Every structure is written in structure tokens, then in C-alpha cells.
Write a sequence for this structure.
């Protein structure tokens, strides 16, 4: 994301600390609300710009050797949960989510007590449940008849983004585990960056590599407690399109091999079948030759451009 206002965050965090208002800044209360703004425009209907506050304010202070800001940030998120509004738990969750994503990517320059923050948010949800059921603030499925219309159930649904990061904000969550994907089980045994050829019954044939195999949490209904279907997901990144069929996949497209785009056949670099029926020798030879031609063509183009 390209920021147009990155310079505002450091002085803003410094001012909030001085006035003991870091919790109000992280929640975006009143004068402390920061409109999310990037190259695409302004988004005043979203919560405060938590990404900018972290990246250009809090983390910048840490890089400068300010060791106190980590504990102050943790205390501020917990303090959000003691504010008197109907969206305290949601906004504290937003502040926690960015930090969890940073942890997953290995980027945060400081450590916070996640368990303490999670327990504070859970207690806030229990305390404010009735208030959250009566508001649709921040609920962007409000006009969607199939989605939650109140903040409480919306937050239950959004809990699925926390689950892959090792956190659940609802202790009574139920998980329906789907049968392991045969494709995922097979691909787990292969090398991570191995190039594969994937064929579909639409006539499309692509080559590429597996991006990742992970658990996908799908919120399936709105009840007094959240229910999730847990399935394995295989994300495959297309490198070259070897044959165009009905779908016409494009280069760099990410395909979900175990979910939406179930392949007809997967073969390795040598033409050996990993999944699906074994192709004829003629079909295998044609694909390998086409793949070789594409690779040679790319090498020639690269040499000309340099």
C-alpha cells in the first residue's frame, strides 16, 4: 500500500502518549480518528488507520530504541476494552489483528502479551454482547441479506481471520472438520518449489508452483456461537499457460486446487502423474515440448531486453 500521509503518524503517536490517549488513538475515538488514505483515495467509513499507526508510529519508535512503547501499546489495547462504547471489542480486535499478522510475517520489532489482550477482548465481548447485538456499526454485510446485520454476529464471522493466526475470540466456537483433501495430501509430499503441470477438464493446461497449503476456516452460519467448516486449501500460482480452454487462466493467477478449481490431472516436470488418470505418451510429449518452447522464448526475450 502506498501511503500519502505517512508523515503524520509518528507525531500523532507521540502526542497521544503525552496526553495518555494511546487507547483513543488505536480505537480512533473523536479527534483521534485517522481516515484510511492511500493512492486509491479516502475511506472514512472504515475504522481508524491502524496500519499507519503501527508502521509509521509505534514501530518507528521501537526502531529508535524506545522500549516503553511496546508495553504502552499492549496496555492501550486492553484499555480499549474498558471504554463505554458498543464497538470496543471490535476495535481492540482490529488493533490485535494487525499485530498478529506482523508476528506471522516475522516483522514486529516488539513483543506484547497476546494472551492478556485476547482475554480482555473476550471479557469485553461478554460484557457488551447486548450492545453489539443492537448496532450495525462497521458491519459491511449490513445490506447483504445472507450476512450478519449486527456487530456481535459480524465479529463471530470475522473470528475466522484470527483462527489461522492461532487466536480465537470466542471460546464456544464449533469446528466441523471436512475430510482431508486427496490433492492436498499428495502435494504435501512434494518439494515446495517444484514446478507442476495442472490440467482441467475445461481444456485449460497451466504450469506453476504451489504457493501454500493451509487450513481454511469457513463461517457457515449465524447462531449464538460461531460454527466453522475447516478444510485444507491448496494455493497454486500459475507460471505459464500451456493450453487455453474454456476458462482461460492467466499467468500469475492463484488457483485453489482443493476448492474452486479442482484439476483433472497433475503431473510433474518429467511428465509423471501425481493426481488423476495417466496421460498418453503423446499428450505428455506435446506438453513437455510446449513448455520447453515457452521457456526458451522467455530466455530469448530476456536476453534481447538486456
Amino acid at each position: 500500500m502506498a501511503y500519502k500521509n505517512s508523515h503524520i503518524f509518528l507525531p500523532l503517536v507521540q502526542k497521544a502518549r503525552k496526553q495518555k490517549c494511546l487507547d483513543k488513538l488505536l480505537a480512533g475515538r473523536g479527534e483521534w480518528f485517522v481516515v484510511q488514505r492511500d493512492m486509491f483515495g479516502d475511506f472514512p467509513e472504515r475504522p481508524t488507520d491502524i496500519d499507519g499507526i503501527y508502521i509509521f508510529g509505534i514501530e518507528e519508535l521501537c526502531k529508535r530504541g524506545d522500549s516503553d512503547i511496546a508495553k504502552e501499546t499492549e496496555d492501550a489495547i486492553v484499555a480499549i476494552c474498558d471504554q463505554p462504547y458498543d464497538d470496543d471489542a471490535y476495535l481492540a480486535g482490529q488493533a490485535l489483528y494487525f499485530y498478529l499478522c506482523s508476528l506471522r510475517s516475522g516483522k514486529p520489532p516488539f513483543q506484547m502479551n497476546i494472551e492478556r489482550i485476547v482475554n480482555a477482548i473476550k471479557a469485553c465481548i461478554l460484557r457488551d454482547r447486548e450492545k453489539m447485538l443492537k448496532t450495525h456499526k462497521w458491519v459491511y454485510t449490513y445490506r447483504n441479506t445472507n450476512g450478519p446485520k449486527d456487530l456481535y454476529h459480524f465479529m463471530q464471522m470475522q473470528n475466522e481471520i484470527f483462527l489461522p493466526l492461532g487466536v480465537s475470540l470466542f471460546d464456544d466456537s464449533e469446528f466441523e472438520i471436512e475430510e482431508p483433501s486427496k490433492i492436498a495430501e499428495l502435494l504435501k509430499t512434494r518439494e515446495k518449489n517444484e514446478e507442476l503441470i495442472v490440467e482441467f477438464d475445461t481444456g485449460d493446461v497451466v504450469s506453476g508452483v504451489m504457493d501454500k497449503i493451509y487450513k481454511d476456516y469457513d463461517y457457515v452460519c449465524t447462531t449464538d456461537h460461531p460454527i466453522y467448516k475447516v478444510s485444507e486449501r491448496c494455493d497454486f500460482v500459475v507460471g505459464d499457460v500451456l493450453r487455453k480452454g474454456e476458462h482461460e487462466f492467466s499467468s500469475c493467477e492463484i488457483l485453489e486446487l482443493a476448492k474452486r478449481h479442482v484439476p483433472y490431472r497433475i503431473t510433474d516436470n518429467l511428465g509423471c502423474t501425481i493426481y488423476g488418470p495417466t496421460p498418453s505418451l503423446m499428450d505428455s510429449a506435446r506438453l513437455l515440448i510446449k513448455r520447453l518452447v515457452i521457456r526458451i522464448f522467455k530466455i530469448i526475450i530476456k536476453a534481447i531486453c538486456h
User: Anything to note?
Assistant: The CA atoms of residues 51 and 270 lie 45 Å apart. The two ends are 30 Å apart (CA to CA). DSSP finds nine helices and nine strands in the chain. The chain has a mean pLDDT of 88.
